[in-house]
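re: that chain from earlier
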Amino acid sequence: LAQASKILLSLTPSEVAVLKEGVHFLRNKADGKSYILYKEEDTLRACKNMCKHQGGLFIKDIEDLTGRCVRCTKHNWKLDVSTMKYVNPPDSFCQDDLVVEMDENNGLLLVELNPPNPWDTEPRTSENLAFGEVQVRNSQGCLFASVSCLLSKYHELHLPLFLSSYPTLKKLAEKRPDVPIYVGKTERPVFWFLDQSGVKLTNINIVPFGVWQQVDKNLRFMILMDGVHPEMDTCIIVEYKGHKILNTVDCTRPNGGTLPEKVDIMMSDFAGGASGFPMTFSGGKFTEEWKAQFIKTERKKLLNYKAQLVANLKPKIYCPFAGYFVEAHPSDKYIKETNLKNDPDELNRQIRKKSSDISTWTPKPGAILDLKALHSNPFSFSLGISDPPAGTKIFKESWDFDLYLNVLSVAIEDEVFRYPSWVKEYYTWAGFKGYNLVIRVLEQPVPKHLTSDRHSLLDLVIFPTENPPIQWSLEEKVSIMRHVVKHGLLWDDLYIGFQNRLQRDPDIYHHQ
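^ sequence. v structure.
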């Protein structure tokens, strides 16, 4: 397969002649897409005007005295276009260069080089299917074509990792410890906590990205990297007898935005609201009115992005799922009421409006989609769907909280927490050093052994390198915080699980 090239923008010789040194923001009037060109003496570098974090637009950074940096309008990330490296946050991403070419008339071309799509290697012709051979059930999109277990996600957004993945894996290990499990070769190992968890799984396979993995003669799969969080997020393509199913759930920018078109089934998340921002923030601009407007705007953006992505990829069937998590515990009542989520039916309506050729299906518990039935009569989509019995409940109404809370509560009275210095010791262990940062850690409810005159302020952790420092206040549920500290877990377990309440002064992104 040959590498493809595409001219994204061209400048005439007269436009090139007036280019001054420094940063130039350019726009293709034909398609409305924006680019950045940097000139320094005889050196020219260029890139798309799109932040790698969440696709924001770059503008001139008025605080930059070097004339080489641009700032993202969404989260203030900064890019040095002379090196194409992000300087805020540092040591994070590199921007993809475009090729800058001069034509025979001294005009300028911005060219994008696209490597061959990995899923096009060893292409297969779609074969006829039997009824019941390929089915998608429920909202978890299970493919009944193999006994292998395909795990393509690093974490589950709906619960902290230590509360969801490992209890499930423990039950799996008890029944069949040798079940084949495949994960992508992420920078941060998927099962980094496996040894500490006590889960005994003996057949974990770490596979490279963008390479077909053969399960049997008919079934293969390919794991693809996330373009925004390559260290931990992935998506997956499953192919059975030439029929492809694409699952991009919880992957921010799967494969950097390049995905297969016209697959049989595409599945993605849709709801939003999996991050702790801004529900867990307070103080300053974070009023209830500001948060409500921000959430409304962000959900609308996500819905529009998903609808356009699906319309561009043109799958035969689109399935929105993995957006039905509920903040169920009574202590999370505020989060549940504030954290509004998108409606899958509204997303389906937008998709059908953009492309009437795409069928959409919102799965409910007990429903089954049969791929053979859909192929047999594509004009009667309902014939391929078996709906659940009338009255089937979509959402749970009760939970066994003790299953999780009992695990967490064990850490509360651990001996290490009887010494107030544990807070500073922990942040030092976590690598906080050389920061212009003040951290105040509060636990709620206050442990009984703390006296009332100390309130719930355990310690003041200071890492200043310059004045004035940035101040963070973290209010944590005592059991969650101590469980994370005791076991050295990721902060995702606090932040994505809505387990903390945050304030920062001044209200700026602290890249470290």
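Residues 139-164, 449-458 have pLDDT under 50 and may be disordered.
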